[in-house]
Amino acid sequence: MGEFKVIEIKKNVLEDNDREADKVRAKLKQEGTFLLNLMSSPGSGKTTMLVRTIRALKEELRIGVMEADIDSDVDADTIAREGVKAVQIHTGGMCHLDADMTRQGLVSLDTSDVDLAILENVGNLVCPAEFDTGAVKNAMILSVPEGDDKPLKYPLMFSVCDVLLINKTDVLPYFDFDIEACRERVQRLHPGMKVIPISARTGEGMEEWYDWLRGEVAAWRES
Amino acid sequence: MGEFKVIEIKKNVLEDNDREADKVRAKLKQEGTFLLNLMSSPGSGKTTMLVRTIRALKEELRIGVMEADIDSDVDADTIAREGVKAVQIHTGGMCHLDADMTRQGLVSLDTSDVDLAILENVGNLVCPAEFDTGAVKNAMILSVPEGDDKPLKYPLMFSVCDVLLINKTDVLPYFDFDIEACRERVQRLHPGMKVIPISARTGEGMEEWYDWLRGEVAAWRES
A222 to chain B, minimum CA–CA distance in Å? Predict the structure, then answer.
């Protein structure tokens, strides 16, 4: 092993937004709306995955999507073309959403007639993991080109998510990505975490994801 | 075009660390050390690119590397094995480095005998762009699997960088990535920005990058 020094820089970046997050969930419960918080790196395929999910589920669930981005509207436009409700949340430079921003987004979306609300968080594996948005469940996408070592480097993100989608399995032959090694790293951080390899481009593995989502929406309604 | 609402959330996340950054640069100038701040998404190939750069340049330049990560040591270990000085900076959950953290890293690295210091920033296209670290130049990597639309979504990052490396060109046949469209988007945000397509895996395009780096190190010494 090579030699190197390690220096620790401590800094508190967390605001206490837990109470606000609990309020968001209470309101969602009242309205019978399930909120999924979807997180990933830039370019891992969140929007492509969402478009396919909307096409598969929009006849059985009333879907609404909040697209968070620094300042572009490209994703909300893509989603709105699928015929579901969409709002674009401009974070004004913020690298994540907190519970209050999410609350503003839900008000703008108007969730009174929404069964499944999805928040596409800012593309970032660090900051979004630190803030409870008020979502019922957290999902993340890790794409094959990013590498199977990401659980080692962004452990909090993998710890706070309920389900991991390993996306872009259609390009597995061109990258050194070991799905079993990734699963093991994830299980060490978060025992029992659901891991679903998918290709949002080809549709491979997506049925298992839809089933997970259907089950979670039903469980929230009945809870 | 689909219909959707846009809501703006304003929040000031910037601390004024410009004075500290200028102090860092003044000290670097005094010591004749060039500092490069390297930024990208998680998994875009920063460490692989650095390893190849070190192998190519370590006989002509004394190199030191600061690896910033939330809490793993894997990258500093990889770099230290190449026989150059390396320190691991644990950000304690922070999603970026500011000038003071960089100053601490430089002290720990001891730049008195370093010609080229490289800061591998936290993998993130948002927050690191907001903070001047005190580096002489900023470089970023965008990898082919992330998509050619990233300049539209993370405009600040592309605006603050002096050079863009488009990495993983060896997998261009398997992705819808249009290098010319990406170049145009980058030039609209940042006219004159240097764009170099590379494959850190195969070495394609790397000579142009080494030449850019050699030129910048020499210009800093002579300035």
Answer: 31
Cβ atoms of B106 and B35 closer than 8 Å: yes
Dihedral of the CA atoms B40, B44, B47, B49 (nearest 10)?
-100
B95 contacts A123? CB cut-off 8 A:
no
B78: chain A residues, CB-CB within 8 Å: 2
Residue B89 is assigned to a structural domain of this protein: yes
Average pLDDT, chain A: 90
Confidence of residue B71 (pLDDT cuts 50, 70, 90): low
Average pLDDT over residues B147-158: 93
CATH number at residue B18: 3.40.50.300
Domain count, chain A: 1
Rounded to the nearest 5°, which phi and psi values hold at B62? Answer: -85, 115
Q: Is the dihedral of CA B125, B131, B133, B135 positive or negative?
A: positive
In a domain, A65, yes or no: yes
Rounded distance, CA B77 to CA B52, Å?
15
Q: What is the mean pLDDT of chain B?
A: 90
For residues A87-115, give the mean pLDDT. Answer: 89
For residue B1, tell me if it sits in a domain. Answer: no
Q: Residue B184 is part of which domain span?
A: 9-222
Residues of chain B positioned with their CB less than 8 A from the CB of A83: 2
The reported pTM is: 0.86
In the numeric block, which tokens belong to residue A148? Answer: 């199977």
B53: in domain = yes
